[in-house]
Write a structure and sequence with these properties.
mainly beta; Centrosome-WD_assoc; 9 helices; Apc4-like_WD40_dom; single chain; 673 residues; Anaphase-promoting complex subunit 4-like WD40 domain-containing protein; WD40_repeat_dom_sf
Length: 673
Amino acid sequence: MSDGYEFSQFYHASLVAYSPGTTFLATSHLNRIIVRSTSTLQIVRTWTLSLPLFDSDNLAHSSSSLPTSSSSKQRQHHQQQQQHLLNGSTSTSTAKNDEEIKIDSLSWSPDSMYLLAHSLQPKTAWIFGLASDGSGESGEIARIGGTGAEGLIKVEWGKKGGEVLAWSDHGLKLSIYDLTTGATSVIQNPKSPQNCHTYSPDYRYIAVAEKHLGKEYVGVYDVLDGYTLFRHFPLRTTDVQGIAWSPCGKYIAAWDSPLSYSIHIHSPIGPHLTQFLSSSPTFTPAEDPGLGIRTVSWAPGGRFLALGGWDGKVRILESEGWRCVGTIQWGSKAVERDATVWREPIDWLRDTRGRGIIQFDKTPTPALLPSVRPDLSKPNPRTGVSQLSFDRDGTLLLLRLENQPNLIHIHTFLPHPTSESPCIAHLASVNFSHPIRRAEWCPRPGHGNGNGHGDGIADECKGKRIAIVTKQQLIVGNSNDSEKTNGAGAGAGAAVYFWDAEAGWEEDDEIEDEAGGGGGNSSDVGHGKGGMMEGVGVPCRSAFSASDIHWAPDGSSLLIHDRAQSQFCVLYDGGEAEAQAQAYEVQRPPASLPTSLSASTPMYGGIRSSVDFVPETEPWPQDLYAEDNRPVLEEGLTFIEEGDEEESAWGDGGGAIGTGWSAAKQAMEGVIV
């Protein structure tokens, strides 16, 4: 496992998003968006969201709708009333509404040049440029939506980079806005914004599930040709739940509603290739299909397709012949003697006051596994496969069941990433004290030496790690504790867990064999018989519950988020944190700071320091500035002044640090940060 972990300070944020290159971290709190440097968590840029003056639109509408027989005096009086309303009470109500804006989604463009924020309440989306200032009221370069019957229920970035996909309510249309040319393309009657659109592996085409005149279709559109229709073919589903393009680009899978266990495989150019039903020859006739398919996941490479059913079984389909080549089913007992069952130590968070690292206990097999009997008489019973995901090279498979909320199961899948046939075996199960909230594979190898050049072995280890958070109960310390008396506060029961396939538990007999020269093959996955499982306490001074996690795209850090308290912190590996500090030459903050500034205590021996969020009226901390009194920017961002007039550090509307961001765009183009 890791040599050690280091935590950042806690910051307020209701939403968080890493930039695709991990250089920046975007957060939102109330109606403010803050961009921080991932390595130091220093503030790089901010925006404050404000609603457009919709009354000005109403004014134009009202003036144009006046009867043609009205006298000019009546028209002038009406316009004066509207203008008074716009300049007077409207500004007060608008300011109040700005404070009530809730950002529901926040995402980066694929090139890390823009941020997309969406709020459901005003049906509006804002687009901000990291290296350019917009002319909008909030500093945005573009705004989508507003009032209207169509609404705006979801927005996301297109894979091309400079395009935004926007879904209207009631499945009316999908609009694609090109930020470069200003052109708009429309796809009519999309089935759903959830799971019903998918891109080809090279992002050249997008497939969208549609519904026209009561029948379901798939439309394939050419992204590079202005989203022109390339293919359009009907589906054999009654209520399609999702579509997924295979990683090899040869197939599009479409699965039906829970009323029937069926998945259909199409060629991207239209022909229906095959279908897998409960009546298929390789589907055991004696088995009850239950409520159909719940989760679908392509294995890397596109040769295999995993289906997680509402019956709690996982079926593996092979693309050659589309037959079921394997089934995974879990009961209440783990019987494989070669597998490892990990169990979380009881009350370790309370005993350690939420601090420190503890290894899980190994349970002898066969071992009983806690399960919950679903109540099928009630709607939405707790049954079926809730998560099904492969690691980055397809050698391991993570499985979670709804009726086993405290367990994760890890299976071997491919003996080697290039293997043609799977070898499915139970590798490990982990039994937690509380239900699992989220489990996520490390996305890809991290920067092993901190400068972007990984170190082979260390990188491969990172690709086979899982981070997990559970629904932990908050632990409040005793008021008589000396630690609380000294101001440190009570320990809270927050923790994050890691399973590592490459680490292993060495038994005494294995150590003796190695001493005698009979070491085993260290290249085998899980050579330690089930990897290693450990829990890491999150040091915090107040109530903090780890409700969500987000891996950095390069796997170098893990963001831990408390959605209820709108707080987050970042966890770094000890070795990588030191390497990053050397690469970025992060220094301690000065000994004395302005009295109006809330400065953090230097952490980890000066390796990383951070600054608390400060109001607009307070001065910026000096460690954000270089010797020439200009902001310190990251990854090629150059501060270039455009004029002699100096501007507030927050800008006129709580915007950028300084005024030179538009010129900095040239330095960032082509660089994913």
